[in-house]
Amino acid sequence: MTDFYDGSFYGRRMGKPLTPRQRGLMDTDMPRLRLDLSLSAPAALAGLFEAPVREVWLEVGFGGGEHLIHRAVENPQVGFIGVEPFVTSMAKALTEVVDRGLGNVRLYDDDAIKLLDWLPEASLSRAYQLYPDPWPKKRHWKRRFINAQNLDRYARALKPGTEFRFASDIDTYVDWALRHIRDHEAFDWTAETADDWRLPWPTWPGTRYEAKALREGRVPRYLTFRRR
Fold first, then answer.
1. pLDDT for residue 138
2. Which of 3, 42, 49, 228 has its CA 20 to 30 A from that of 20?
3. Among 6, 29, 110, 133, which one carries the catalytic annotation?
């Protein structure tokens, strides 16, 4: 692990109490699926997964896990690493992984910065960051995960020519992300028409956060960037 880690995780780690089954799965199955960053990352990340996979995608902050599980079911030959420090959300996703027998998913329940620094260079074929905490107050904007240092991390871990996908319903964070990522030397914004950022990606399952945003009148935006 590099010395980039600066302890930038903010927020709660626990919400509603876990059900007895969730507590049991966290005890019995989470140790099997959790990535152990005390070990060196394998040169080929495909070796992390129980199922044979041809490439690896990352989702940082998967929330309720709707998107992560949907993509893992949809793409059985892709390995998925899901990062979520919020215990209740992790337990929910873990239950789905176990119940569906998904051998192409590994999980990490701590700060995504640690995971990004642990990954080998040019080891990911796609990365998602969907509806991250927007930290809407201006004095808290420094806590937003999208910043120059973390974009350096994404750029190091992504293979050239692959995509980084970002979604948010908060206008100030969309503008923030677009400005920071377009200014970064490693990324190009791929949009050619307005629909490229107004419409979600193919086979998009939606998320509970997106549904809440739509109910409350906020409009989601979907940004796609290509690693140079």
1. 87
2. 49
3. 133
